[in-house]
Amino acid sequence: MQGAILAVGNELIRGQVFNTTSFWAARELLACGYTIKEILTVPDEKDLIIKRLKEFLEAYNFCLVSGGLGPTTDDITNEAVAAALGRPLVVNEEMVRRIKEREQALNIPHNPLRLRMAELPEGAVLLTNERAMAGYYLKIGEKILFCLPGVPQEFRHLLKTRVLALLEDFLPPSEVIRHRLFKFFGLREADINLKLKEIEDAFPEVSLGYYPVLPEIHVSVLVKAANEQKADEIFSLVRERLEREFGVYIFGYDDDLLEAVIGRLLLERHETLAVAESCTGGLIASRITRIPGSSAYFERGVVTYSNQAKKEILGVPEEALQKYGAVSEPVALAMAEGVRRLARTDYGLSVTGIAGPTGGSPEKPVGTVWIGFSCKEGTVARCFLFPGDRHMVQAYAAETALDWLRRYLRYGTLVPRYQFTCRG
Amino acid sequence: MQGAILAVGNELIRGQVFNTTSFWAARELLACGYTIKEILTVPDEKDLIIKRLKEFLEAYNFCLVSGGLGPTTDDITNEAVAAALGRPLVVNEEMVRRIKEREQALNIPHNPLRLRMAELPEGAVLLTNERAMAGYYLKIGEKILFCLPGVPQEFRHLLKTRVLALLEDFLPPSEVIRHRLFKFFGLREADINLKLKEIEDAFPEVSLGYYPVLPEIHVSVLVKAANEQKADEIFSLVRERLEREFGVYIFGYDDDLLEAVIGRLLLERHETLAVAESCTGGLIASRITRIPGSSAYFERGVVTYSNQAKKEILGVPEEALQKYGAVSEPVALAMAEGVRRLARTDYGLSVTGIAGPTGGSPEKPVGTVWIGFSCKEGTVARCFLFPGDRHMVQAYAAETALDWLRRYLRYGTLVPRYQFTCRG
Predict the structure, then answer these.
(1) Minimum-distance CB partner of B300 among A48, A280, A305
(2) Start and end of every MoaB/Mog domain (chains A, B) (predicted)?
(3) pTM above 0.95?
């Protein structure tokens, strides 16, 4: 079952708004067994829309159009669809009622122009009775055309709640799909790629996608099979294989965030955390606290950017700063141990490094970062040399610190092995 | 001068990687006077690529193809381009040399498959001599076709450094374009929209785009004129009008970040900053420290998530916490004043609030946030009620605190007026 997506809008084609919604839709559709063959963005130009719509309906089983359903004169999707299908525009009384109701509810004067939104191609069936701008679908023989509002939230809501179900009714997929994202951290690209190739060669039903979303690596597993049982069976085999090969490096699946995984582990264990950051500048604390409920396990964070702050807030000894410098093992240890002791938490994490672009030296080049980890077993620190620009060094440092805690919580590893570890 | 963009790749059409690069390119091209009429994404399928390429080269002055230039059997762009143009594939000796050099430099064994990358359509001119995967262009009569690598960084680099200059040489734009993004914070949508409509009605050469990138609002100003002088003249008039109407609410232009604007102002004044955060959880410190050189003006941040931390690190009186609660004027004042005093900085910012989803009450619903500002003139605090979910409340709170500092640095306003201010 193949389809195309046509997104209409001057703001999209001008690059003023990036059309990410169509790509999100393609991913959702694929997970339900529908293959998208073309994703096209065009301006608010009737002739072009008509031309491409005709082609897509000719070539594919279904088509999704987004945008251009509003009341202004720029909004020409309804007219273009009617013209492409050779059907007249007909006033939809249900839409008229909703538009008038909405004007009354919002206490805005009736504007007859708004009724343009109610002139839909003959045969249009509204997708929902919840909203004024509902979107609609049209059956054209065996094929189906969906017209959805361009506003991302509305589009996503209707796709999830209505479009996927209608597709399944009208165009049941010929294959069963299983799709999952495996999220990795801490492995080299080459280490992963070689194994993935082996898995793909072993299972012809499986497509693996390798996506560096640095500092993480995401691997998408797509299984296509003739029936549910076969799909589940193959998916399980691939999953077991991935977990056997990569085990501790897989921190989560699909929408999992590393900071949310850590949060769940800390909650389960009724344990608490404090962090002391220098070069990551609050990034770790900020990631932890974007998770709802993090106040149950996150006690405090300090961003000790200056040496003075390291001494005053964390009790880092002046001597260590003088003798070894702020980016050093003794300072990382003192920060992790200090923040854990002062906050009376189960864990303390610390980061001190040179994010760049300036501040590097031959002995401590940009990217040099010491990370400290403190728990009841003791306090340890390791040196890393992270690649990339300031943002990338900060992102790698924060991710490594958070993953270190995950590895300890999950496997009890006091000093995990990581990519980019250096002698320090 | 009109063009189309064709992005090739299974990972794109499956929605595993969102194709934002094409939209970025459309924006860059528009700013140079080139209009994109279609942005199409297709899978690695030769026949479909050939068909659309032919159409685009027929309909438009130029076409940009991205992706599919690599060495694997999936990479079929070169073959498709050759077939679409009816030209043979020819071995490009320069490419062969670069591939072999790269193999030697990386010390990897020679793989003859990699030489597929050197088989280019007859007439292809390499875009750069810096890299192995160079991209190329082809002249077809008056028209021009660019083939670029799909890797976003490579694509962007080549577009900026080579493609725009070549287009200007071969297809000089017929109109002069001025394009600028104006970045607003702190105004209501309705306040902006009405004025924009007036401006657009007054200047037929101007298209204004209104884009809520919450909590900011971005307004794009696009001027098309027959010559440079006219374009600059109209752009100046619109700019003056916008600055007269909205003045203090415009914090920057184009790629400006609010935290970078503040950084420049603090540097100019040789002044320093410390922040004390509760519900924003390090977001403010993290935004400030992502700017290179921020250590010159940022002394420390503290994320006092627990009441204990507020007392211990900032000296917030136990009494204030007991009597008024952590989300209150006295606590916001004590945090801002405390962090400024302890860090001995010129400015102190504080945020304490209820980001949700839990923790709200009838008197202090989710979204209630107190922000404190401390400077040599004194310490003040104001209460806000921000809309949206946890992330949005955190984003609004951080943005408001940062903008408050900007308004003071730029205009000396001790207590600026903001949207979402409440009685508290």
Answers:
(1) A305
(2) 4-169
(3) no
